[in-house]
Design a protein that fits this description.
Blueprint lengths: L4 E5 L3 H12 L3 E5 L7 H5 L9 H4 L2 H9 L13 H13 L2 H4 L2 E2 L3 E7 L18 E6 L5 E6 L1 E4 L27 E2 L21 E5 L3 H16 L4 E6 L15 H15 L6 E4 L1 E9 L2 E8 L4 E6 L1 E4 L25 H10 L22 E3 L13 H15 L10
Parallel strand pairs: 1-2, 1-7, 2-3, 7-16, 8-15, 9-10, 9-15, 10-11
Antiparallel strand pairs: 4-5, 5-6, 12-13, 13-14
Bound molecules: flavin-adenine dinucleotide (FAD).
Length: about 400
């Protein structure tokens, strides 16, 4: 009898949790991580403090393993920064022998198929499960190879796949040509704007686009820059004419509450240090020697121009569906999440991530047997995912998978 194998795609918080669960249950597994180190996404906003406390950011399984490794599991009501979370939980876990030996850093999974089958083969017959998964993988040296697995857990998140800047969610004319001026992650305003820039934001003309918590965080941080260097000009463009900023009634997360309050003051206050343009979308961009000419379209169809040096685009992100294009995955037409989970989420329709809980093992299943999308990618365009939902998803999937041993031939 041989053991079935699992490929875990992504060593973010949920991929690491899945790896611990796989090791615990005796599975043979490999974790592929595109970044040079674990938790590539969380690192990318390492300077930002989370809304949720240590108690919610480190799973019970991680806590137990950290203790076994002789590390004090971080605990308590404080909210860590992304860097603190990575350094005190994810990095030590990545050194655990069962993780370290199975972790392939700098290794991106490019595409997945079934060996010998196309997407359109064996529809609904169950025979697809008899064909091993075939993963096209590219390592840090750019070398491509094929690896195989019996089960695939896609925990690749969404951050690698930011949404476009332009009106209607597609790239604005000129957006592709202006890519070198656009930053699509949460920048630390104490450092350079873009790699290669001199440190410091003072005196720049900056366009910030988006209204979610990420954009709110940047708007708040940029106020400090404007106050220190009033020659800095920040235009904050928000699609809605009356944004609510994801406000939650009686918010139990104080840091989120104060961020939303601050965004309200900045957007609606008469003395805002930012040039806030509500009800505007990016219509077109034209990069030239002195900066970028950005045309904004108002709700009424008028065009306004702003001339800027840099653009921060925080218009959300969604998981990369190209990975499983050859698999039978049923995606939601509205959120791009896996259909069953998306339907469950749409019917619960809460904007509060604290109200989220895993929707049960059933909704994690796809028409493609043994292929599961977990973690923030499973939520598609719904931004209410919390890591603790990911911990629950991992438990549910491992319960579904049962024992790692393959059934003996002939049973
Ligand atoms: C500013 C900010 C604050 C947040 N605050 C909170 C909070 O307070 N509480 C909370 O619970 N959540 C918070 N979140 C959300 C949290 O970051 C996510 O819930 C969490 O990171 C999701 O974990 P994940 O493992 O699903 O995905 P990710 O963290 O995105 O991890 C995915 C991993 O997969 C890797 N990867 C991507 N593509 C590939 C590929 N093709 N092949 C191999 N590897 C790949 C990536 O490099 C990454 O390491 C916050 C997010 C942001 C941006």
């Amino acid at each position: 009898m041989t053991n079935r194998t699992i490929a875990i795609l992504g060593a973010g918080p949920v991929g690491l949790e899945a790896a611990l669960a796989a090791a615990e249950a005796g599975w043979v597994f490999t974790i592929y991580e595109a970044a040079d180190d674990v938790a590539g996404n969380v690192r990318s906003w390492g300077h930002v403090q989370l809304f949720t406390p240590w108690t919610m950011n480190v799973s019970p399984r991680m806590r137990a393993r950290l203790a076994e490794l002789g590390q004090e599991p971080p605990d308590g009501p404080e909210c860590p920064t992304g860097t603190e979370l990575t350094e005190r939980a994810f990095e030590p876990l990545a050194l655990a022998p069962e993780i370290a030996t199975n972790l392939r850093l700098g290794t991106r999974v490019l595409e997945i198929s079934r060996d010998g089958l196309l997407k359109s083969d064996e529809i609904g017959t169950g025979a697809r499960a008899e064909h091993v998964f075939r993963l096209l993988v590219r390592d840090a040296d750019g070398h491509e190879r094929v690896e195989h697995a019996d089960v695939v857990l896609d925990c690749t998140g969404t951050y690698d796949n930011p949404n476009a800047l332009g009106l209607g969610g597609i790239a604005a004319p000129g957006e592709r040509g202006a890519e070198e001026y656009i930053i699509r992650r949460i920048p630390d305003v104490r450092g350079p704007v873009l790699e290669g820039d001199a440190p410091g934001w003072s005196g720049l003309r900056i366009l910030l686009v988006g209204a979610g918590h990420s954009a709110q965080t940047v708007a708040r941080d940029l106020v400090d820059v404007v106050e220190r260097a009033p020659e800095t000009h920040v235009t904050w463009v928000i699609r809605s004419a009356s944004p609510t900023f994801g406000a939650v009634e009686n918010d139990a997360l104080p840091r989120r509450y104060s961020l939303v309050q601050r965004a309200h003051e900045l957007a609606y206050g008469s003395q805002s240090p930012l040039d806030v343009r509500l009800g505007r979308s990016v219509h077109a961009l034209e990069a030239s020697v002195g900066g970028i000419d950005v045309s904004l379209r108002t709700d009424g169809g008028d065009i306004e121009h702003v001339f800027v040096d840099r653009i921060i685009s925080l218009t959300g992100s969604v998981g990369d569906a190209r990975l499983y294009r050859q698999l039978q995955v049923h995606e939601c037409y509205a959120t791009s999440g896996p259909m069953r989970l998306a339907a469950a989420l749409l019917s619960s329709s809460s904007v509060d991530c604290l109200a989220q809980q895993s929707q049960g093992a059933d909704v994690l299943q796809n028409p493609e047997p043994d292929f599961y999308i977990l973690g923030s990618k499973s939520y598609g365009r719904n931004s209410t995912f919390l890591m603790r939902v990911g911990w629950e998803q991992v438990d549910e999937v491992f319960e579904l998978l049962g024992a790692p041993e393959a059934a003996p031939v002939g049973t």
